[in-house]
Every structure is written in structure tokens, then in C-alpha cells.
Amino acid sequence: MDIRDWDPTNVSDLASVYNAQVADAVPHCYAISPDAFDAGRYERTGDDYHALFRSERVVVGTQEGQIRGFAHVRVGEIKHRDRMLDGGFVHFLTYAAGHRAVGQAILEACERHSYESGAASIRAFDGYFYRFHHLGFPLVSDRMAHVCALFGQNGYKLAGEGEVFLEQPSYAAAQPNPPEPDVEVRVQALAARGHRPNLNVRALRHEQEIGSCVAVSGGDICRANDAQDLLFVDGLGVTDREQGRGWGRYLLARTLWEGHQLGYRHTAISTGKRNYRAQLFYTNYGYRVTDTVYGFVKERNDG
């Protein structure tokens, strides 16, 4: 077994490892080309994104002449959920199931680098994402149970409750009627990187927004052809005063209908693992759980 660092700016050869171990095995993780793998790792995550890293490593583990896994670790400062965090960040880690020794050695190398660089804590799959991975979420799927278990065996604790992903493949959509005819509904198709636009559907009463639904093209997140037909509902909300009048259901239905008119054929959505109210709403509407994703954290004194 051999564990070594690779140049973080030239890791396109790892795309084949990602494709073999992650793509298709995990929902919404599509096969990616070497050039897209390099580019997707370093794109900004939004206007509110801020990070200042002091050091970076890509750790690669080989056994019997084959790459069995890799990890990407940085040490520094990152904006996460409206607060600044300083420490080590294992942005990504994968290893072939059945090669636990390789995974263990890769994780230990990430920890050594973090602690030697002054980190007091390490966050894994939490706070930074690869644009092409799992619709841009930084978390790791329970479909990669061996990776989740590796963190657990090494003293990592869950960072937050986790996120549940739900999907409707090949969904049907009929044009819905609004709950109240005097409320204006505005639909915006917004430019996206993929083949089809993003959508923003808003309900306004006397020019005051009472609810909205924002949906993002899978192609805006990932270049893969299979992602182009996916409409991901990124945000759905109704003001407290308007709750219980059917606007949430209408805005979701209207968004999916508008998406279907544009050529979208599959839809996905996510919510907190303990947000049971939202899960009831989405499953009643036809969504079904596909997987659950998690982040991990370990303080240096945790062992």
C-alpha cells in the first residue's frame, strides 16, 4: 500500500476513480469527464461564499498498482451557515469498499496534515462542496456506508441532523389552479449553464410576495447528459400569514408543470432528516426518499 500527496491543481486522473466508486452508485452523482472534475472542484459556491485556506492536500492511496481511494483536505477558514469556522476540512473522501486499510491510511494522512497545520477540529463533508457531486451538497450519502462508518470508527460525530433527498422520476404534471384568483403569480425562467433554465415562481398579493418556489436545473450543477432532465426544487416557502391556504402545494405544482413544459422529466427535493412536516408534505405529493446525506466533525481532543 502506498499513500502519497498529489498536486491539487492536476488531479484529472482521479475522475475515473470517482466514476467507478461514486457515480451511479449514489443518487444524483453522475459520471464526469477529467476536465470537468478539475473545474468542478474549484468553482465558487455562491455570492456569500468565503474561504481562506492556508494549505491543501490531495491524498491518494494505491494498492497492487491501482488507485483504491483519495481525499481532498484543506486547512483554513470558511464561511459555513452564516458563521466563520477555522480548522481542517476533508471536502471529499472515497475508497473502494473492502479496502478499509487504504481508507484508514488516507483519513489518518488527512488528520496529520490538519493537526500539523494547527487545526483544532476537522469537518468532513461539511461546509464546502464539489459542484458536480450530489447536486452540489457537501454531504456524504448513506449509500457510501463504508465511508460513513470509517468516520464513525475514528471518533467523528454527526454535524447536524442530516438531509433527506426525495425524488419523482418520470413525473407527470397538470396545470394547477391557484387557490385564490386575485393573487398574481409570476413565473421567471432564469439563465442556467445547462440545456434548460432555472425557475422562480412567485405568488404576490397587492405586490407583496406571499410565497415562492425556486427550482434549479440539474444541468446548471453538472454537465452530465443525465442531469439535464432533472429539476431540483431548491426552495419552497409561504409566509406564516398565508399558511394553510394551499399556496405551498400550488407553487410546487405550478413549478413542476412549468418545468415539464420546458422538457424536464424528473424532479428531486431535499429537507432536514427531522423535518417530518416537510417529509409528509413531499411524500403526500408523490416524492419518495432516495437517500440520506451527512456531515461529520471531530475535535482534536476526541481522540
Topology, please?
Elements (H helix, E strand, L loop, with lengths): L1 E5 L8 H7 L12 H7 L10 E13 L2 E15 L2 E13 L4 H17 L4 E4 L15 E2 L3 H9 L3 E2 L4 E6 L15 E7 L7 E8 L2 E10 H4 L8 E9 L8 H16 L3 E7 L3 H10 L2 E7 L1 E4 L4
Parallel strand pairs: 4-5, 12-13
Antiparallel strand pairs: 1-2, 2-3, 3-4, 5-15, 6-14, 7-15, 8-13, 8-14, 9-10, 10-11, 11-12
Helix pairs in contact: 3-4
Question: What does this protein structure show overall?
Answer:
The protein has an 8-stranded mixed β-sheet. A 7-stranded mixed β-sheet has the order 1-2-3-4-5-15-7. 23% of the residues lie in helices and 37% in strands. The longest helix has 17 residues, at 100-116. It contains 7 helices and 15 strands. Helix 3 links the parallel strand 4 and strand 5. The radius of gyration is 21 Å and the shape is elongated. Helix 3 (100-116) packs across helix 4 (145-153). With 303 residues, it is of the alpha+beta class.
Q: Write out the strand line-up for the largest beta sheet, numbering strands in chain order.
A: 6-14-8-13-12-11-10-9
In sequence order, what are the helices and strands, one letter per element? EHHEEEHEEHEEEEEHEHEHEE
**Low-confidence parts, pLDDT < 50 over ≥5 residues?**
none
How big is the Rg?
21 Å
**What profile does the largest beta sheet have?**
8 strands, mixed
The secondary structure category is alpha+beta
Portion in beta strands: 35-45%
Number of helices, where a helix is a run of at least 4 consecutive DSSP H or I residues: 7
Find the count of extended strands (DSSP E, 2+ residues).
Answer: 15
Gross morphology is: elongated
Q: What is the averaged pLDDT score? A: 92
Helix content: 10-25%
Terminus-to-terminus distance: 25 Å
